[in-house]
Amino acid sequence: MSGITEAKLAAMGLTLPEAPAPAANYVPFVQVGDLVYVSGQISKGPDGLMIGKLGDTMTVEQGQAAAKACALNLLAQVKAACEGDLDRLVQVVRLGGFVNSTADFADHPKVINGASDFIGELLGAKGAHARAAVGCSSLPMGVAVEIDGIFQVR
């Protein structure tokens, strides 16, 4: 099923990936009432894992691209939770961003803006969200960014 949101994605030259399968012992999302809690989605794009460490092997711009890949994977999980209808998304409530970075790297918010800016451009007011942007010394499989989220659906 393709709706308004996916048509806007297509106009942006993007498509949603298939919802990634869990890499360990967890479920990709849990729905409680009208809220969908999506497990952390790693920076995996169409060309594979986006591996690197901000402040060492990656620039802020590369980190932003990795965060955008995470956002696409988050939306793919929301679509799966909504039985294929992404237009059931009412509001992006919160994103939690984790940035694989050196100890002296301080631009975590700029990196996670790669996800926030993309979601805002795609969804407008329903994309406005609370957020955290945290640096960490490593992430699974060496990826640059991991983001989890909470979404309101109908």
Features:
154 residues; alpha+beta; 60s Ribosomal Protein L30, Chain: A; 5-stranded mixed beta sheet; two-stranded antiparallel ribbon; 7 strands; 30% helix; 29% strand; globular
Give a short overview.
The protein is α+β, with helices and mostly antiparallel strands and 154 residues long. 30% of the residues lie in helices and 29% in strands.
- Cα gyration radius (Å): 15 Å
Succession of helices and strands: HEEEEHEHEE
Count the strands? 7
Class of secondary structure makeup: alpha+beta
For the record, give the distance between the C-alpha atoms at the N and C termini, rounded to a whole number.
Answer: 16 Å
Query: What percent of residues are in strands?
Result: 25-35%
Number of H- or I-type helical stretches: 3
Number of domains: 1
Shape: globular
Overall pLDDT metric = 97
Largest sheet: 5 strands, mixed
CATH superfamily: RutC-like
CATH top level?
Answer: Alpha Beta
How do the strands line up in the largest sheet? 1-2-7-5-6
Are there runs of 5+ residues with pLDDT below 50, and where?
Answer: none
Q: What would the CATH topology be?
A: 60s Ribosomal Protein L30, Chain: A
Portion of residues in helices? Answer: 25-40%
The CATH architecture category equals: 2-Layer Sandwich
